[in-house]
Structures are given as structure tokens and as C-alpha cells.
Amino acid sequence: MAVYTDVGDEEISAFIASYGLGEVVSFKGIAEGVENTNYLVETEQGWFILTLYEKRVNPAELPFFLSLMEHLAGSGLNCPTPVRDSEGCNLREIAGRPAALVTFLEGLSVRRPTADHCGEVGEALARMHIAAADFSLTRRNGLGIDDWRPLYERFAERADEIRGGLGAMIEAELAFLDARWPRDLPQGVIHADLFPDNVFFLHDQLSGLIDFYFACTDALAYDVAVCLNAWCFEADGQFNITKGRALLKGYDSVRQLSEAERAALPVLARGSALRFLLTRAYDWINTPPDALVKRKDPGEYARRLSFHQTIRSAREYGLDGTDRASAR
Amino acid sequence: MAVYTDVGDEEISAFIASYGLGEVVSFKGIAEGVENTNYLVETEQGWFILTLYEKRVNPAELPFFLSLMEHLAGSGLNCPTPVRDSEGCNLREIAGRPAALVTFLEGLSVRRPTADHCGEVGEALARMHIAAADFSLTRRNGLGIDDWRPLYERFAERADEIRGGLGAMIEAELAFLDARWPRDLPQGVIHADLFPDNVFFLHDQLSGLIDFYFACTDALAYDVAVCLNAWCFEADGQFNITKGRALLKGYDSVRQLSEAERAALPVLARGSALRFLLTRAYDWINTPPDALVKRKDPGEYARRLSFHQTIRSAREYGLDGTDRASAR
């Protein structure tokens, strides 16, 4: 939530000159993105976002993200489109950082999603999965099941500082998931971080998806499980089955979940809850309480994990139990 | 340089609804302003800046700042104009903070001003002084000469931690200024903080002045002295007389400096250098080195003060020595 790299007027003007978008008429650092620096740039041709990739980003992975956004936008998905300069480049450098200019997307992210919002997110996620089906690049999920144990081991000794028994809970869950994780589900490009702050709405219609910097190749249904965690729990920690039903119905209406994917949803939801529990716990331990970056409560995801541990079937998330193929 | 107060989509939509500007279509926290939270808001009718006034701002002074901006804009000066809601209010509340919506100004602030930029700033400053001449409110300068000693006393014991001898230098200067400060110069509304980051340029023309939150009633020529300090020194600490000449000539071409003002410039420049030395020294001592807010070097203003102490006449700043009235 900060501008990590400062860019001056001469730098930005020289940088923008090579895009053929006219001159820069305004330029503001925005408090968006935890990992990167973002500027809102107005040129004579409109508004754009300039992202400077900071140290935590692997530059070798940037072409994947930029090509993906370009591919998705080209397939009709509303997402930021990387702009190419006069030499055809969409990845350049400014102020010593790799940087890309992308189109500006209107819309607001919602703090309190309704079931209608959840339904639209489900549809948009499925549309993204389908749009990416013929995308040729792949990227390993750096926060997939094989990464969870090593990540846990980096703070295991201090896990119980967050909450008594947290270490044992994580240990048991890692063992469960190692044994039960479905490895043969349909794979593809997933967003992997489609939280409400990464989805824009305009006049209550979904207007776009942003922040593809966790996108990777993994089980498509895992992305659905991430969204169940990200969109369908209330502030009091309760799962809202109306929202779950709307999200799953929305997804299924665009890309039908297979029987194997339906059956796997509870374990995928457990894995997804554990993934966010682990990164939040790691950040909690490694972020000073008075840092400007607000620490997110790991306990929230411990509670979601506990909930998913009680789930026996995807019907409990609101998934319609009928076999749609035969119902037609 | 941060968003101190978080505003949600429902809050901003409800807030903007009462302005008759259509719906909010985009909303970004911007990394601008050290003391307040600023959001860039796009509505169906265009772009605006929403400022939330944080704890360091005295709410009782906000009507002065907002009325001043409205007055200046009404007089044709390019500056943010507070927007009034359907009830005629320009000062409202959001997220528990006093807040104002102002028009968005295009332009970029320059990092390395040229003499031409300095000339335009001089002209714009004089135009602001003239435009404010019939403004009816007044505000005491909270960082004027009478405030410097009390401010110094808050860190006097630690002044030499910044640089050996700094305490003695400040003490001597306070004594000098107490004895020599001109108290009978023409008064009016001054900007008091017209640094390069508060001036926008577009296609090398000055496009607007922003950030009137230090504006107050004081000697007009003191504002000129602030600008000499803020615009006419090079990165290596040298005064650039070409820039000084351009700035003073630009000012004088719009509002002619009186003989008394000309004679007072060196002492006003010393006072202005001391004012920024004092606030920077205070912030230096009270800001942890690892804070996200970048500390500004007090030494820079100690060196400027030393320079001004050698000045015997405003001619040494580049001010034309002829009596313009008789030259015409």
C-alpha cells in the first residue's frame, strides 16, 4: 500500500513519450498493491496504470503475467491490458525497475459483497478459465500444496505465538492434505487471488478483474475454492450458503464443474484456507505491529479451515446436487 | 505520503451522491500529502480529489482554507476549487473525518525547475497575492517569527545531534531576527509553502497551484522569500542567481515590490530558511530513521541560512536595482 519507488516528472515524461499516447498531463502515486509501486498516469489519450515491479517480484515471471493479461483482454475479458510501446515492448524499465503500462479499468471493489456480486464473480472466474484455455505459457504455482510445508517450517517454532494450538492444527492439516490432495483435476491458468479487492463493479455489474500477479497453472477448481473462501464468509466468520450457491451457480453456468471437481471442492477449500492461513501467519510473525502495512488476521483463516473440515460434500457450499448433464 | 483513513465503496458512493456529479466510477487512494489522506475520485462528470483531514489539522481552520481556494478560483487563479454539495456545503464528513471534495487539476510538478519555471512561479505567486487582496478571512501564521523560538525549544537540547553547532547557529539567528524582523511590510494572504511539489506545469506552462493548507496572513514579501529558498537553489546547495532573477522579475511584473519589501528580502529569506530548518530539524529528531515518511535533511536549510547571512542587498538575489517607477 505504498509508493516504494519514486519517479520524477522528467522520467515519466520520457518513458511515456515512446507509447504514442501523447504527453503526460497528470501523474499520481496510488496506494494500491502490496508488492509493487503503482502510478495513475493521465496522458492526452486517457488514463493508464504504470506498475513498477519491486524486489519481491521475479522479473523472469513478468512476461507470463503481461502475456496473460494481453491474451485475456484479447479474448474479451475485462482486465488491464498491457500497452506496447512503439517498438512493440510491453515490459520496460523506469527508475531502475521493470515496469509496464496497462489500461485503466473503471469500477469499485466492494467491501460487503452480496450474493449477486458472488454470482457475477463465479461467472467471471469461469470466463477467465475458458479465455485462458488456449494460452500457451505456464507458470508453476509458487504457493501450491508442495510449498505449504516449507513455508510453514519457516515460522513453525513461532506459530503458537499467534494462537495456542495453531502449530498442531497446521501440522495435522498438512498431513491430511498430503494424503488426500486431488492431483488429476482439470488444469489451466488460475487467478489464485480473486479477492474482492481484485474485482471491480460498476452500477452493480462486474466491470473487470485486476491483479494477475499470483496467476499460475493449477487445478481450475482450486480457483473456485479460493473464491469460496474469499467471497462467501460473513464478517462474523459464518459461511453464507446463499453466497456460496450464487458463486458456484455462476461458475457452473459458464463452465460446468466435473463430478471429480465437485467431489474435490471440500478438500480444495481446506487447502485454499490453509494457503492463506500460512501466508498470513508468516506475515504476522514477520511484520512489526506498528508497520504501515496492515497485518491481516491469520485467525480468520484458521476458523475457515475449521469450518471446511466439517464439510462432507460440495452441496454444503450450496452446489446444486443434480447432474446437470442429465437434467438437460 | 499515505492513506491514513480507509474509505469503503459504500461510504464513498453515499458521500458523492449528494454532489449531483453522477455515480462514482473509480476511486483510488493517492500517495500525496504528508498530513492528510487523499483519494482520486472519478464520477460520471469527471475527476476530483477527496481530502480527509487527519488529526494534525485543526478543523476550525478548514473553512479558511476552503473559502480561500474558492475565492482564488473565483478570481481566475488555477487552483483546486472546493465543490459544494446539494445543500451548499463544501466541508463535510466521511469515515469520521472532516472532508472536502475539490476539482482535479492537471499538470506535473517539476523536480528540476528551470529559470523559466521560476519566472512563472513568481508571476503566479503575485497573481495569488492580488487575487487574495479582497479575501475577507484572516489566519495567523502558525509558523511565523513568534513561533520559531517555542518550536526550537522543543528540540533545543538535541539540536547538536543533527550537526555540531546547529543549536548555537539557531540561537544566534533567532536573536538577529528578533531584532531585525520587519513588522510593517504589506500584509495579505500568503501561500507559505509554495515548493515545487505544490506547483503544476503542463507543456512547460504553469497550470496551477495546490496545497493551501499552510496559507495564512503575513507579509507578502515573506512568501517571495520562501520561494527564493524553495526554487532557486541547486542540488549542490548553490544559489542560482539566474533563477532568482527570473522569479523576482516574474513577481515584480505582476505586483511591484515596494522599496521596503526589496530592502527586507535578505532578512525575510533568512527567516524563511530558519523556518524550514526548524521544522525539518524537529521532524528529523522526532521521526524514526526507518519510518515510511522520508525525513528531509535539515542541513540543506542550515546551508541556505548561511548563504542568506552573507547577503547585503536583494540585488544579490537577482532583483533588478533600478527604480521601475521612474524608469517607465
Strand and helix layout:
The structure is a homodimer of 328-residue chains.
Chain A: H1 9-17, E1 24-30, E2 37-43, E3 46-52, H2 62-74, E4 92-94, E5 97-103, H3 115-131, H4 145-153, H5 159-162, H6 166-180, E6 187-190, E7 199-202, E8 205-209, E9 216-219, H7 220-231, H8 241-254, H9 259-286, H10 298-309, H11 324-327
Antiparallel strand pairs in A: 1-2, 2-3, 3-5, 4-5, 6-9, 7-8
Describe the structure.
The structure is a homodimer. Chain A has 2 domains: about 10-105, Phosphorylase Kinase, domain 1 (2-Layer Sandwich), CATH 3.30.200; about 115-315, Alpha-Beta Complex (Aminoglycoside 3'-phosphotransferase, Chain: A, domain 2). Chain A is built from 11 helices and 9 strands. Chain A has helices at about 10-15, 60-75, 115-130, 145-155, 160, 165-180, 220-230, 240-255, 260-285, 300-310, 325, and strands at about 25-30, 35-45, 45-50, 90-95, 95-105, 185-190, 200, 205-210, 215-220. In chain A, strand 2 and strand 3 (about 45-50) form a beta hairpin. In chain A, helix 7 crosses helix 9. Residues about 325-328 of chain A have low confidence and may be disordered. The interface of A and B includes residues 13, 31, 111 and 203 of A.
